[in-house]
Amino acid sequence: MYDAQHPDPATAATRDQKPERPALLIIDMINRFDFPQADQIKPGALAAARVIAKLRETAERAGYPVVFVNDNFGEWHSERSRLIDSALTDENDISAALRPNDDDYFIIKPQFSGFYATNLPVLLPKLGVNRLILTGIATDICVLFTAADAHMRDYDLWIPEDAVAAETAERGRWALEIMANSMTAETRPTSDLSLDAWVSRAQADAPAQP
User: Fold this and answer.
1) Cα(125)–Cα(121) distance, rounded to whole angstroms?
2) DSSP annotation string for 125-160
């Protein structure tokens, strides 16, 4: 269990870094799943958690930042350790599979988008991030809104369809189509595209720097 007595060692540069690497964002997966319709999303969220766990291992091996972007669930005095402890109080295979490490970044958001009223827009440039892998729940709500804000900030996006979940397959497909068609996001699953392949392709497609 995360120990609030020990400071979080996750650090970032004081100045913006050269934008040249991706970050993995894990959205709303540290969660008690006690909201209405939770039973509808839990099977898909568990399947996504297993995929995200593998992506996370790959990102960590490559030295890419892992950023948890998590709702405050209406608890305006909440903070990282309370959210993690609350999610893991009861048996919860989804959150347990993705338990944050001390060196993971943890952003608490008050609304749908991970960029709205958070320090994420400040953190990412300091980590030298220019592309984002968005994962988590729900595909048609918080993932979609975060993707829209990321797109407006010119981040390259990969939203693997097997690493996100929605209450219904139809709503998930609808959101993925919007992100692919309106935000030029890559949505192929991890079974069809590896992290290394996506990064290499994005680097090859990037315009030459003057």
Assistant:
1) 7
2) HHTTEEEEEEEEE-TTTHHHHHHHHHHHTT-EEE--
Say how many C-beta atoms besides its own lie within 10 A of residue 99's C-beta. 15
> Residue 152: what residue type?
M
User: What's the pLDDT at 15?
Assistant: 86
CB 172 within 8 A of CB 166: yes
Q: Dihedral angle at the C-alpha atoms of 114, 117, 120, 122, nearest 10 degrees?
A: 160
CB 176 within 8 A of CB 159: yes
Cβ–Cβ < 8 Å for 151, 163: no
Q: Are 117 and 110 in contact (CB under 8 A)?
A: yes
The secondary element (H helix, E strand) that includes residue 138 is none
Q: What is the mean pLDDT of each run of 10 residues along the chain (210 residues)?
A: 45 88 97 92 98 98 97 68 78 92 93 96 97 98 98 98 98 98 98 97 70
CB 175 within 8 A of CB 143: yes
C-alpha–C-alpha distance, residues 182 and 192, integer Å: 22
The pLDDT value recorded for residue 2 is: 33
Angle CA 182–159–90, to nearest 5: 130
DSSP helix/strand/coil, 25: strand
Distance CA 115, CA 49 (A): 22
Going by DSSP bridges, is the β-strand pair 129-137/105-109 parallel, antiparallel, or unpaired? Answer: unpaired
**CA angle 63-179-163, nearest 5°?**
50
Residue 175 near residue 183, CB atoms below 8 Å:
no
pTM of the model: 0.90
